[in-house]
Specification:
- The chain is α/β, with parallel strands linked by helices and about 725 residues long.
- Helix content is about 30%, strand content about 20%.
- The chain is built from 21 helices and 26 strands.
- The strands form seven sheets. Strands 11-16-15-14-12-13 form a six-stranded mixed β-sheet, sandwiched between helices. A five-stranded parallel β-sheet has the order 4-3-2-1-10.
- Helix 3 (about 45-50) links the parallel strand 1 (about 35) and strand 2.
- Helix 6 (about 120-135) runs antiparallel to helix 16, helix 12 packs across helix 13 and helix 16 packs across helix 21 (about 535-540).
- The termini are far apart.
- It binds alpha-D-glucopyranose.
- Alpha-D-glucopyranose (GLC) binds near residues 63 and 274.
Length: about 725
C-alpha cells in the first residue's frame, strides 16, 4: 500500500482502514474505543496521545432532563486541532450529541412524529436536524430511538415510534436516511445511532431500567425489526442498552451484539454502549468482579466503544497484552469505528464552518416543516362538530396549565431548542383567532376567581391540558395514566358552567383520558409539538389545516390494563362468555379507549370494493390487495389506509392482527382513489418453533381500514 493510504481520499475506505490499522499501536487502537464527556481541556493530553476517539457533548448521564451550556463550535475545533495536527496519526475525533427530535428547530417528539404516519416528513425532520447540528461541529447523533413502545407508564415511550414494529421500521429507515443521506461524508449530514439495542422498552412495571423478561421469538418478531430495518438502511452506529434480558445484560451479550447484529444481519457499523453501562457489570448487575473483568466481557461480546465508563481506557490494553481480549478482536472493533470516521469524511473535513451555522439554524423553511409535522401529528380524538372553530362568534376563553407554556411544549430530550422560540397556544390563538373574535387568555392558575367570570362570559373554552416534559423521557415513568392533578377538575367545573370545552392535550404518552372525552366537546391530542406548537394548534383548531394524526400507540382506559396494544394473540376461551368478557376485568373493559391507528378528521372517508388477487398464491408469489377510499365529507383531507393481516394457522400462536402496510392519501371532497398493497412471503415471515424465519402455506385474513379496530375483511391463501 502506498505511503499513508489512509490519508488518501481517493483510496477505498477498506484500504484506508487496513492501512491505518497497520500503523496503530495497541494503545492507539484502544484509544479509538474510548468516548469521553465534552471537549474539555482535561482531555488534551489524552487526545494528543491518541487515547481518545470521541466526545459526547452533554451535561452528563441524564442529558435528556437537563439543560447544558450548548455546543460551542470553537471548543470542538480547539480539541479537534490537537487530534488532527498534534497526535501521531492525526485521527479526527467524532463528536456526538443527543439531537433527538431536532436541534434548534425542534420537531414534535418522536411519538408525535409517528402519529403523522408520514415517513417523508420524518425524513425531512431528520435532515433538518442534521443540517443544523452539523453546522456547530457535531458529527454523530444518538437517535433515532426505535424501541417498540407498548407501556405508557414508561417515560421513554415518548422517544420511540409507537407500538408497532412495521410502523416503527418504516419511520426508522426514513430517519436514518434523513440524518445520513446517501453520502454521510457531506458536511451537512450526521451519523445516526439507533437505540437502545435491545428489549429496553419492556421493563417490568414500566419502571425505567427495570429487568426484562422476553422470549427470543417475541424479541425477534416485535422488538428487533426496527433495528434490522436500520441495519438494512445502513445506519452507522447502534447503542447497546442498559437492560438485561432474562438475566443477561445486553451490553455484554455476544449473541445479540455480535452473532445477531453484526453477523446474522451482516452489519458493518459500530456499537457504542449507553452511558457508563460497562461499569454496571461490576456494579449493580454483579456479573463482573471488577471493572477489568467488565471491560473484558463487553469487549469480547463485541461492544466497540465505551461511553464514559473509563473501562476500556483503564484496562483494555493490558487485557490485550495478557490475551484475555485478542488483538484480532480489537482490530475488528477499531476497524468498524475507523470505517465510520472515513464514511463521515472526518479526515477530509474535520473542522466545522462557523459561518454555516448562522445561515441554517432556525431557518424559516425549517420552521415551516416543523409546523407541518406538528399539524400532521395532532390526533382528533373527539369532535361534536365544534371544530374547526368558526371565525365569528362569542368570546373564547383559553385556559389550563399549558395555555401559556412555551419550553414545556418541546417535550423530553430537548437540549438546544430555546423556550423563547416557541409561541404558546394561548398567544397563538389570541393572535390568530383574535383577529375576528374576542379571546381571553386565562391566568396560569386556571379557574381562579377571575377565570370563573371569564368562563361565564365565554361562549366556549379551549382547555390546554397534559403533562410537562418532566413526566416524559428517561427516568420518568409514572404509575397513574390519569391527567395531572386538578386538570379534570378544571374541565368538570367548565362543564358545570355549561360551557363547550375544546381540550388540547400535550403529553409524551397516551394518557387515560376517558372522563375528559366524556366531558369535552372536542379533544385534540398534540403530544409535545415542538417549536411551532402554538401556531400549529391554532392552525388545526381554526381549520387552516386538518388534524392529520393517527394514534401510533393504543390508548388504554387505565394503567391497570397496561401493557396494551392491538397485536395481541389468540387466547384460550376467548369465545367463552363471548369474546367481550373472558379477556376483560371485572371492573373495567380491556378494550382500548382508542385503538392503534385511530384519528378523526374534519371530513370523513368510506372504504369499499376490497379486491384480492390472486386469492390463492404460490409460496414465492405475491398478492395484490386493493380497496377504494372515498372522501365523503365536505373538506379536503388525508386518510391513512392501513392493511392488517392474520396468519390463521401456524406452528406458533400468531397475533390476531399485524400491520403490514399503510398509505397516506390526500383526497379532495368527493374524491375516490384506489389504494393497492402488495404482499409477498417475506411480509408474512415470522420466527418459527426452530427460531428460524418461517412462512407457511395456509389461509391469511386481511383487513383494510382506518385503524386496527375497523376495516373491510377478506382472505387469501398461500399454496404449499
Ligand atoms: C442516556 C440515554 C441515551 C443517551 C445517552 C447519552 O443515558 O439512555 O439514550 O443517548 O445516555 O446522553
Amino acid at each position: 500500500m502506498s505511503e499513508e493510504t489512509y490519508r488518501n481520499a481517493k483510496a477505498s475506505i477498506e484500504d484506508r482502514v487496513t492501512d491505518l490499522l497497520s500503523r496503530m499501536t495497541v494503545e492507539e487502537k484502544v484509544g479509538q474505543m474510548v468516548q469521553v464527556r465534552n471537549a474539555a481541556e482535561e482531555h488534551d493530553s489524552g487526545v494528543r496521545a491518541g487515547h481518545i476517539g470521541s466526545c459526547i457533548i452533554a451535561s452528563g448521564p441524564f442529558a435528556g432532563n437537563e439543560r447544558d451550556e450548548g455546543v460551542h463550535i470553537r471548543r470542538l475545533t480547539r480539541l479537534q486541532k490537537i487530534a488532527v495536527e498534534e497526535s501521531r496519526l492525526g485521527i479526527p475525533l467524532i463528536y456526538a450529541r443527543d439531537v433527538i427530535h431536532g436541534y434548534r428547530t425542534v420537531f414534535p417528539i418522536p411519538l408525535g412524529q409517528a402519529a403523522t404516519w408520514n415517513p417523508e416528513l420524518v425524513r425531512q425532520g431528520a435532515e433538518i436536524a442534521a443540517r443544523e447540528a452539523s453546522s456547530t461541529g457535531i458529527h454523530w447523533t444518538f437517535t433515532p430511538m426505535v424501541e417498540v413502545g407498548r407501556d405508557p407508564r414508561w417515560g421513554r415511550i415518548a422517544e420511540g415510534f409507537g407500538e408497532d414494529p412495521y410502523l416503527a421500521s418504516r419511520l426508522t429507515s426514513a430517519a436514518v436516511e434523513g440524518y445520513q443521506g446517501d453520502d454521510m461524508s457531506q458536511p451537512d449530514r450526521l451519523a445516526a445511532c439507533v437505540k437502545h439495542y435491545a428489549g429496553y422498552s419492556v421493563p417490568e412495571g414500566g419502571r425505567e431500567y427495570n429487568t426484562v423478561e422476553l422470549g427470543e421469538r417475541t424479541l425477534r418478531d416485535v422488538y428487533l425489526p426496527p433495528f434490522k430495518a436500520a441495519a438494512k438502511a445502513g445506519v452507522a452506529t447502534v447503542m447497546s442498552s442498559f437492560n438485561e434480558i432474562d438475566g443477561v445484560p445486553v451490553s455484554a451479550d455476544r449473541y445479540l451484539l455480535t452473532e445477531v447484529l453484526k453477523e446474522e444481519w451482516d452489519w458493518d457499523g459500530f456499537i457504542i454502549s449507553d452511558y457508563g453501562i460497562i461499569a454496571t457489570m461490576c456494579g449493580a448487575f454483579g456479573v463482573a468482579a471488577d471493572l477489568r473483568e467488565a471491560a473484558a466481557m463487553c469487549a469480547n461480546a463485541g461492544l466497540d466503544m465505551d461511553m464514559c465508563a473509563s473501562a476500556y481506557s483503564q484496562h483494555l490494553v493490558s487485557l490485550v497484552e495478557d490475551g484475555t481480549v485478542s488483538e484480532a478482536q480489537v482490530n475488528s472493533m477499531v476497524g468498524r469505528i475507523l470505517r465510520i470516521k472515513f464514511r463521515c469524511g472526518l479526515f477530509e473535513h474535520p473542522y466545522a464552518d462557523e459561518n454555516r451555522a448562522k445561515k441554517v439554524i432556525l431557518a424559516p423553511q425549517h420552521r415551516a416543516v416543523a409546523r407541518k409535522a406538528a399539524c400532521e401529528s395532532m390526533v382528533l380524538l373527539k369532535n361534536t362538530g365544534i371544530l374547526p372553530l368558526a371565525s365569528e362568534g362569542g368570546t373564547v376563553l383559553v385556559t389550563g396549565p399549558l395555555a401559556r407554556a412555551r419550553g414545556e411544549l418541546y417535550g423530553t430530550w430537548n437540549l438546544d431548542g430555546q423556550p423563547g422560540d416557541v409561541i404558546s397556544i394561548g398567544e397563538a390563538l389570541t393572535k390568530k383567532l383574535g383577529e375576528d373574535r374576542e379571546v381571553h387568555l386565562d391566568n396560569p392558575a386556571g379557574m381562579g376567581g377571575l377565570s370563573r367570570i371569564l368562563a361565564r362570559q365565554a361562549e366556549m373554552v379551549v382547555a390546554c391540558l397534559g403533562e410537562g416534559p418532566w413526566l416524559s423521557g428517561e427516568g420518568n415513568s409514572i404509575a397513574s395514566l390519569e391527567l395531572p392533578a386538578g386538570q379534570l377538575e378544571l374541565v368538570e367545573a367548565l362543564h358545570e358552567l355549561g360551557k363547550p370545552v375544546i381540550a388540547v392535550v400535550c403529553a409524551g404518552r397516551p394518557l387515560a383520558i376517558g372522563r375528559l372525552c366524556e366531558l369535552a366537546d372536542a379533544v385534540i391530542y398534540a403530544w409535545h409539538p415542538g417549536v411551532e406548537a402554538g401556531q400549529a394548534v391554532a392552525d388545526v383548531l381554526l381549520g387552516t389545516t386538518n388534524p392529520g394524526g393517527r394514534t401510533p400507540v393504543t390508548f388504554p382506559r387505565s394503567a391497570g390494563q397496561v401493557p396494551t396494544h392491538y397485536a395481541h394473540k389468540p387466547i384460550h376461551n376467548d369465545a367463552w362468555f363471548g369474546s367481550d368478557r373472558a379477556n376483560h376485568y371485572r371492573d373495567q373493559l380491556a378494550t382500548p379507549l382508542f385503538p392503534f391507528g385511530f384519528g378523526l378528521d374534519y371530513t370523513s372517508y368510506r372504504y369499499t370494493n376490497l379486491r384480492i388477487s390472486p386469492e390463492r398464491a404460490s409460496m414465492d408469489g405475491s398478492v395484490s390487495i386493493s380497496v377504494d377510499v372515498e372522501n365523503v365529507g365536505s373538506r379536503t383531507g388525508s386518510e391513512v389506509a392501513q392493511l392488517y393481516v392474520r396468519d390463521v394457522l401456524a406452528t406458533v400462536t400468531r397475533p390476531l392482527k399485524e400491520l403490514k402496510a399503510f398509505e397516506k392519501i390526500a383526497l379532495k371532497a368527493g374524491e375516490k382513489k384506489t389504494v393497492t398493497f402488495t404482499l409477498s412471503g417475506g411480509d408474512l415471515t415470522y420466527t418459527g418453533r426452530d427460531m428460524r424465519p418461517t412462512v407457511e402455506p395456509g389461509e391469511f385474513k386481511v383487513w383494510v381500514g382506518p385503524n386496527a379496530a375497523e376495516g373491510i375483511e377478506g382472505t387469501f391463501e398461500l399454496a404449499g
